Structures are given as C-alpha cells and as structure tokens.
Amino acid sequence: MAILGAKTFQNYIGGEWVDAASGETFESTSPANGEAIGTFPRSSAEDVARAVAAAKTAYEDWRLVPAPRRGEILFRFAQLLTEQKEDISQLMAREMGKVLPEARGDVQEAIDMAYYMGGEGRRLFGQTTPSELPDKFNMSVRQPIGVVGVITPWNFPIAIPSWKILPALVCGNTVVFKPATDTPTLGERFVELLIEAGVPGGVVNVVHGGGGEVGNAIVIHPDVPVITLTGSRETGVQVTKDAADRLKHVHLELGGKNAIIVLDDADLELAVEGILWSAFGTSGQRCTAASRVIAQEGVCDELTSGLVDEAEKLRLGVGWEEDTDVGPVINKAALEKIHSYTTIGKDEGATLLTGGEVASGDGLDKGFYYRPTIFGDVDPEMRIAQEEIFGPTVGIIKVSDVDEAIRVSNGIKYGLSSSIFTRDVNKAFRAMRDLKAGITYINAGTIGAEVHLPFGGVKDTGNGHREAGQAALDFFTEWKSIYVDYSGRLQKAQIDTSD
Ligand code: NAD
Fold first, then answer.
1. What is the Cα–Cα distance from 406 to 277, expressed in whole angstroms?
2. Where residue 367 falls among pLDDT bands split at 50, 70, 90?
3. What confidence tens digit (pLDDT) does each residue in 370-428 have?
4. How far apart (Å, rounded) are the C-alpha atoms in residues 460 and 481?
5. Atom of ligand 1 nearest to the CA of 182
6. Which protein residue has the closest C-alpha to ligand 1 atom 30?
7. Is 300 one of the catalytic residues?
8. SS3 state at 43
9. Catalytic residue from among 102, 188, 287, 467
10. Whose CA is nearest to atom 11 of ligand 1?
11. What pLDDT is attached to residue 499?
C-alpha cells in the first residue's frame, strides 16, 4: 500500500503549474482517518479568467488537430490510467473513502470511457442525404463549440471527470476543470495523466477551489459557452439561473431517490444481494444508490429480515483494507445530514430496524462512519422516502401489486435509476415502459453503468441531456448543415419553378 505524504499542489493553467493569484490555500483530508492528503490553491475569479483565456487561445489550434490524432491521445491516456490503476485506487480510498474494489471500478470506468471516446476520433459521424435539387450535395457535420467548463462532485472523482472531459476533448473543445474540494488530489492526478498522454498546454486547465467562487466564475464567464455539471439539484438550479443571461449550453446530472421494486415472484436471495450493493455500496453516496425498497406484501417480511441480517454483517472500516465492506461518508457535514434523516424518519413514524447511528470504536472515531440503516413501515410520502439523503439509509415501503409499485417508484421529483426484481416477463416489460427514470434495471440493483450507453435522468435529475455513449457527442458539438451547389446556376430551395 502506497503511503501518501501530504504535498502542496497548484493549478494548471496554459501549460504551467501555478499558485492561486491570492496565494491562499485549502487542505484535503481523508474522511477515513483525518490524515492530511494535500494542500491546494484556493482560487478565485482571477485564476478562472486566466484559465479561460488560455483555453480560448488553445482552442484555435486544438479544433484543427485531426480528430483521430485527438483520439490517439485518449488511447495513451487509457494506457496510463491502466498502468496506474492500483495506485490511483489506493489514493481514492484515502481521499474519498471508497473501498478498494469500488475505487478500482471508478478508475476502470474512466479507462473504458477513454477507449470509447478515443475510438470516436475515427467516427464522429455526420450525415449525407440527397438534395431536393439537381447537382447539389448535402451533409451535416459535428463542430466543436469552444471552452467547456467542467464542474464535478467528489463521489466519482475519476469516472465523472472522464465522462465530461474526454468527449469534450475528442470533439475538439478545450476545458477549464474544477474538481470538488473534497477530492482535489484525484482531479489533479487525472490532469497530470492527460498531460503525460500528450494533451497540449492550454487545452485542459485545472483551477481548484469552491463552488461559490471558482465554480460560479466559470459559469458566468462570457468565454465559456458550455457548462457541464454533476452535483445536487440545488446547485443545478443555481447554475441554470447564473448561465441564463448568456444562453449557455448547460448539461446537468443531479440527484436521485432511486427505488428497487421486489415482486412476490422474485428471486429473493438475488434481490437481497442487489439491494445491499445498491443501498450501501459507496456508503450510499451514489447518485444511483437505492434509498427506497418497494416490496410486494407477499415477500415484504422475508425480504426485510433477510436485508437486516445481511446489513448487520457488513464491516465498516477504512477503504484500503480488503475486508472492509462499507467505508466512511465524505465529511462531517454529510455525517450530520445523514443522522438528521434518522431523526426525521423516527419522528415521521417509520420503524428503525437497524443502524441509525454514527459508528464508533475500532478507530472509526477518527473518520466519518455511519451504520447501514434500514427503516421499515415507510410511507411513500415521508421525507425519508422523498428527499435525497446521500448516505447508507434505505426505507422499505410495502405495496399490494405491480401497479402500486410503479406508482410509488415514480412518485418522487427525481428520475435517475430504477429497478425491478421479478420472474414475470410481462411485468418486467411493463416496468421498462412505465418507470419514469433514465435507467431501468431488470433483476439487478440500481447502480452501475456501461460507458457506451447514455447516462442521466428525467424530471429533476437533469435538464434533458445525457452523458456517455453517442448522446455525449450531441452535447459537446454543434451540428452544421452544409449545402454544396455544383449546378453553376442559382437554385432556390422551396421556390416553385414549374410555371
Ligand atoms: P454539489 O452540488 O454540492 O457540488 C458539485 C460541484 O458543484 C462541486 O464541484 C461544487 O464545488 C460545485 N458548485 C457548488 N455550488 C456551485 C455554484 N453555485 N456554481 C458552480 N459550481 C458550484 O454536489 P456534491 O455534494 O459534490 O455531490 C453530491 C450530489 O451530486 C448529489 O446530489 C448526487 O446525487 C449528485 N450526483 C449526481 C450524479 C448524476 O450523474 N446524476 C452523479 C454523481 C453525483
């Protein structure tokens, strides 16, 4: 295991490592045991302005680099990430708190995305189509847009930057990147590897600091036409308002309140496994985490006792120890928020079946650990069943049939992921059609995504865009339609020339 010494880091602007203009700094510490990870520049609008200017200048050359060459840089990036996968995963277990298997998965997702988007360098397909006029040729091509502002959360500190930065780059855009203040070292490592892979100076710039200062300065800067942000619904609304005056392209991936439906005919053992993984993986801090279980009345009791038994066996600890099942939550404020929802749940009349407390003893007091928490007798309208807790808390809601299950699953403001466990193909297809969510799993939990499919949600989870897959290209490019008239005379479209 690599022992990390706390180090001082800088911003990367126009191909150079530089301090914040103010000279101020902030610390990154481990949620697992409080150890210092690094010191980072506390940047401001002035640093953002420099980064945007560098990215704007670099854009003029980068957009003209043939897309297959841009793709080759991403292939090299994928190789470097692969070589350093273990090292970065260890760092992630320390800085963000994830257990190692999940940290490795986070890095692997970025490797997959780098290969996928690297391949797009040789595709980025447009269309050709017949003209309605003789001697005329029609086509549409994708064009880059300019400087992309990338603002990311801490919960997937390598994967989420990859979903945004890699498609932006292969399409020919340049980037100003603000990683989350809880995981700046991982953001920095991501950029270091891009530089090593051959991304020219100015094409990717990283500016560290808080959302209110650095994030907002990126959002309102007139030379940043595209903003992509993953974060909470509240941040998404604020960013939308701040970007509105300049009619920017804004892509938002926001919160979730995802449910797993378990019908009477389900494979219960599989369902228990899927729920545990979805509810308590990453300590429940995934946008796709399951925080509601909707159980049909015939299986509700058996499912509940199976879940409680298994949840109580989960071992809490530091993420870098191989026998840890559940790591810490990200910081003190998160721990307090999660615990406040336990109080809310009890006050609302739900039955606390297990957990519901801050974990202590065995060195856990040094970090931010919360016991996996399960509530029974949850009403769909309770706050614990409606609001995003973003922690290891799940509520079980009893329903009578598939219609009620789908109604309850849909009865929230979010619409990211959804799931149903059933052996009845007819009910599975009903769920695929009627669950209002960007993702539906059949006989699997709510978490996990493959990079070549679109990722995102409906309703308050986003604003209609998707990341990953071909859908990502639509956000990071603009379509241009091109008409070539080789008739040698002025032909007028839609003008009737028959008389
Ligand atoms: P957050 O909204 O607090 O912060 C996200 C990022 O936005 C951070 O980098 C932050 O510094 C920045 N930010 C905050 N205020 C800003 C502002 N006014 N202007 C510009 N930038 C600003 O979210 P978080 O706590 O880091 O992450 C957890 C949230 O992210 C949860 O709601 C979770 O569901 C969501 N999330 C969604 C997805 C998805 O794909 N739908 C994936 C992961 C996380």
1. 22
2. very high
3. 999 999 999 999 999 999 999 999 999 999 999 999 999 999 999 999 999 999 999 99
4. 33
5. 26
6. 231
7. no
8. coil
9. 287
10. 211
11. 54
Residue 254 beta carbon below 6 angstroms from any ligand 1 atom: yes
Question: Mean pLDDT across the stretch 349-358?
Answer: 98
Calpha distance 275→224 (Å, rounded) = 41
Cβ proximity of 456 and 465 under 8 Å: yes
SS (H, E, C) 98-109: CCHHHHHHHHHH
Cβ(14) – ligand 1 distance below 6 Å? no
Q: Give, for 91, the enclosing helix (H) or strand (E).
A: helix 85-95
Q: What is the DSSP letter of 299?
A: T
Are 90 and 320 a contacting pair, CB within 8 Å? yes
pLDDT of residue 493: 83
At 474, which helix (H) or strand (E)? helix 469-476
Distance 150 CA to ligand 1 centre (A): 11
Residue 416 CA: nearest ligand 1 atom is: 41
**Can you tell me the distance from the alpha carbon of 443 to that of 429, in angstroms, rounded to the nearest whole number?**
12
* Rounded mean pLDDT, 244-264: 97
Q: Tell whether ligand 1 has an atom less than 6 A from the beta carbon of residue 155.
A: yes
State the Cα–Cα distance between residues 173 and 365, nearest whole angstrom.
45
Distance 484 CA to ligand 1 centre (A): 45
pTM over 0.90, yes/no: yes
pLDDT at 2: 39
Is the beta carbon of 373 within 6 A of some atom in ligand 1? Answer: no
Nearest C-alpha to atom 18 of ligand 1 is from which residue? 212
Give first-to-last CA distance, the chain, whole Å.
83
Annotated catalytic residue: which of 95, 253, 388, 467?
253
Instruction: Tell me the β-bridge partners of 480.
Output: 141
The distance of Cα 445 from the centroid of its chain, to the nearest Å, equals 17
Q: Which atom of ligand 1 is nearest to the CA of 218?
A: 20
CB 301: neighbour CB atoms within 10 A? Answer: 12
Instruction: Please state the φ and ψ torsions of residue 13, each to the nearest 5 degrees.
Output: -130, 125
Q: Which token pair is 64?
A: 């003209």
User: Residue 5: is its pLDDT beyond 70?
Assistant: no
287 is catalytic: yes
**Digit-coded pLDDT (tens) for 44-72:** 999 999 999 999 999 999 999 999 999 99
Q: Rounded distance, CA 257 to CA 485, Å?
A: 53
